[in-house]
Hints:
The chain is mainly alpha-helical and 335 residues long. Helices cover 72% and strands 0% of the residues.
Amino acid sequence: MSTSIRVPPAARAAPQAAVRGDTPAAIRRCLPTAALIVVAVVWGVTFTVVDGAAEELPAPDLVVWRFGLATLVLGLVRRGGTLPGGLRLRSVVLGALLGSGFLLQAWALTFTDALVTGFLTGLLAVVAPVAGWLVFKENLGLRMWVGVALAAVGIVVLGFRGGGFGPGELLTLASAVVWGVHLVLMSRWSIARHAWAIARMQTTVVSLLGGFVLVGRSVSRGGIPLPKLPAQAATWAGLVFLALISTAGTMVLLSWGQSRVAATRAAVVLTLEPAVSGLTAALTGDALTGRVVVGAVLLIAAMVVVELGPRAAPSGRLRPGHAARFCATPARDRP
């Protein structure tokens, strides 16, 4: 006599459901990296816009207009709730670092052009992993170091000029160091569900920092401590782009994306920024030389080296070989 075991329909459907569930999970795991790519592309275009605005507005005035308007926009949409005390303090520290970097960058653009500034800013891809390794003892694998090395070579190729380093280049390097530290701390301190509130707090602090510089300037030179009003319509259009898209939008994406992506991986992904900066500058009049092409290829290769390759998924829901291997594995699971 034979005995047959009846398998409930729900049990038979479970494996199929699990397989079907892999695709949405893989897409979700790709989203943080995709968010950082969007940030890199937007910020790459931003260098040319900032360069144009810096011709009319001094560095602190530009920072106050850009981040003040962004704070206003983020404040009109009440999302993210109230930040806990510890996270609020950390967001203030992040904002201070962010503001220092933007002030240095805006000041640098008064000495040099957007092409060089964009390329040298990409050195944060080297600063971030080194800072994480030195300060937080982060364990970086060989593939990460190879990606960092490729990014460093790409930045050197892109930034090499016969004229050497002047004040603009030195100020840009200082901003890259500050932003590299900011990147490491963002990956450790950001929480996805508070991304909006963290972005709003940072833009507020940057606006206040720019305001303090304005007050200091008015005390030393006389005058009213208010930001200069742009006289040209093109400058106003640039400020709207900088405030709404390049600051409010990207800061939310950055806060959310970095809550799920390790600092070294995020830094290498953001090296797309100087490549886009170089392409944008070339499209607006600068020469697109072989050096620019080679440097851009090296930066993209660095991102590919870091992003491709097998890695363990924390939850075990995704199998090696699926789409998730092309995306960032979160440093930690967060809501």
